[in-house]
Batch of 2 targets.
Target 1
Amino acid sequence: MAVIHTWRTKDGTKTGRLTPLKAIQAKCLDCSCWSQREVRLCPVKLCPLWPFRTEKIYAQFLEQEGRVSDEPSK
C-alpha cells in the first residue's frame, strides 16, 4: 500500500509515493539528524518503529501477514 504524501527531508520537503517502509525510513532519518549511520546504530528500542526499520525485518513482517512487499530487493 502506498499513498501520495508530503514529508520532511534534509533539504526541505518532498511529495511522492510513500510506502510504509519508506515512511519508517524517513522518520528514522528525521529522528537521527539525517545520518544513515545513526539510524543503523539507533539504541532507542522503545520506539514503536524500531522493529520495522530495515527492509529485511519489514519483509518478514509482510510474510507473516501473508502479503508480499512491493519494495524492490536490494
Target 2
Amino acid sequence: MKEILIFISNEYADWEIGYISTEIRKSNKYKISTVSISKEVIISMGGLKVNPTYAIDDILNNGIENFEMLILCGGCNWRKERYENEAVKKLVNMFKENSKSISAICDAVTFLAFNGYLNQVKHSGNSWEYISSVCPNYTGKNNYIEKQCVRTDSFITANGTATLEFSREIMKGLGLNTEDEIDNWYKLNKSGFYSE
C-alpha cells in the first residue's frame, strides 16, 4: 500500500490535517505516515503529541517510490524559521523531481513561495500581499489565484482558513471517491445538517 507522507513540526496546526488524514485512512487506499526533522515527539498547537513515523533523513536515504504525496501542514514553526529549512527543501525537491504531488496549507504555502517553488505554478495561499511581503524572491504574482484552494498537476495549495477545501482537493487528486461523493462530503461538512 502506498503512503501519504505528512510533514509536521512543533506547533503544527493539527486541525489543518484532521479531515484529510481521516478520509485517507478510511479509504483503505493509502497508509498515512508522518515525517519530521527527527523522530522526537512533536507537539501540535492543540497539544497533541505525535511520534513521527520517519525522520527526513530516513526518506532522503531510502527514496520515495512507496510514497504517493507529500502534505506540508501549516503551523507556527514555518515563520519562526523564517521559511528556511534545508532538510524540508531537500524533501520537497525529491518529491518534485520524481513527479510526486505536493500539498501545502497556510504558512507551508509561504515556505514553498519563499523557496521559489510557486513562481511558475498556479497557487493560492494566505494572500498575495502577505506572501510577497515575506518572500523577497517570490515572483509568482501572475500565478496567484484568490481562491480557498488551488489544485494543479503537481501542487495543491490552500490558505489557512481552507481546511475543508484543501481536504476536498487532495481527495480528488488521490481519487479517494467519485467527484460526486467528494462534493457531497464537502457540502455536508461545510454546511452541516442545519442552517444557523
